[in-house]
Amino acid sequence: MEKLKVGSSTKPNLAAGAIAGIVRRDKKLEIQAIGAGAVNQSIKAIAVARGYVATGGLDIICRPAFIDIDTGDKETTAIRIIVEAI
Asked: In sequence order, which residues have a C-beta less than 8 Å from that of residue 17 and are 6 or more positions away?
């Protein structure tokens, strides 16, 4: 499953295009976001991507969860959002 990392400075429309493309091709992807700003941008991107894939007859759902990520010098908690086409 492809992973997409979203940060607080990520433009939601650009991330939405990536999400839509991956969902159309693979039907599933994982988004990783660290921090409130990144989670906010991720949710906005998913909402926009839902509109993008609707024109092709798809809808998407998402399942959030906490994960621990090793950033090299320390371990931090992130949000993992599994996005799937239905």
From this structure: 49, 52
> CB within 8 A of 55, min separation 6: which ones?
none
Chain segment 47-76, per-residue pLDDT in tens: 999 999 999 999 999 999 999 998 888 999
- Residues 82/30, Cβ–Cβ less than 8 Å: yes
Say which residues have a Cβ less than 8 Å from residue 11's Cβ, sequence separation at least 6.
Answer: 41
Sequence-ordered list of residues with C-beta below 8 angstroms from that of 74, at least 6 positions apart, any chain = none
Q: How many CB atoms neighbour CB 83 within 10 A?
A: 24
Q: With contact defined as beta carbons under 8 Å apart, do 15 and 46 qualify? A: no
* Environment class of 31 (CB within 10 Å of its CB; exposed 0-12, middle 13-18, buried 19+): buried
